[in-house]
Design a protein that fits this description.
This protein is an alpha+beta fold. It is built from eight helices and four strands. It has helices spanning 2-24, 49-64, 84-95, 100-109, 120-126, 131-139, 141-156, 178-190; strands at residues 40-44, 71-75, 164-167, 170-173. Strands 2-1-3-4 form a four-stranded mixed sheet.
């Protein structure tokens, strides 16, 4: 019994360290906030049509508020979206080579083209990524752990669908307009 407890504690420590390493290796996104309340945090699913429509709005706001408020993307692949997990792994693998935003944009722009067997490696090639490294990162345990950690954190925060956006702790769900999100950011900055 005592050895089982030691094993469980040791395993918990290894998982925690793995998640911390996965977050630290993601170059395009700031470290996860201590709570959902810091900045703008977007929980997304690359196969979600509403996320694809909201993505350009988030990009525009991120450019507009650059240096004034932090923006972060978190994965929340929905079970009904068959290729969402693979797309999240593709984005994370691209992040390992400094191309998270470019891959995310491609995934959303070409969402309708995915079909039954999406070839995200083709997208990686178009971004000039080292394909051998990309494939290794797509399959890596740390990439899978990062996505699982994002989803677990989102679930703990009450995320049920995508997109779910937190602006300094206030939760917004569904497809929101530029004006609605800009207004929410302005209110958050005045607090």
């Amino acid at each position: 019994m005592r050895s089982n407890l030691k094993f469980a504690l040791g395993l918990s420590l290894v998982v925690a360290i793995g998640i911390a390493i996965a977050y630290s290796l993601r170059p395009d996104t700031p470290a996860p906030p201590a709570t959902a309340g810091d900045g703008v945090v977007v929980y997304l699913d690359f196969q979600c049509p509403a996320c694809a429509q909201t993505h350009p709005v988030i990009e525009r706001l991120e450019q507009e508020y650059h240096g004034r408020i932090e923006f972060a993307s978190r994965h929340f692949p929905l079970p009904g979206h068959r290729h969402a997990e693979a797309a999240a792994r593709a984005a994370e693998a691209a992040a390992q080579q400094g191309k998270y935003k470019e891959m995310a944009a491609l995934l959303f722009q070409r969402q309708a083209e995915w079909g039954e067997n999406p070839d995200f490696t083709r997208y990686a090639a178009s971004l000039g990524l080292d394909l051998r490294r990309y494939e290794a990162d797509v399959a890596s345990a740390s990439t899978k752990a990062k996505i699982a950690a994002d989803k677990e954190r989102g679930t703990a925060l009450g995320v049920r669908g995508t997109p779910t956006i937190f602006i300094n702790g206030d939760r917004f769900t569904g497809q929101l307009t530029y004006a609605e999100l800009k207004s929410a950011i302005e209110r958050a900055l005045k607090k």
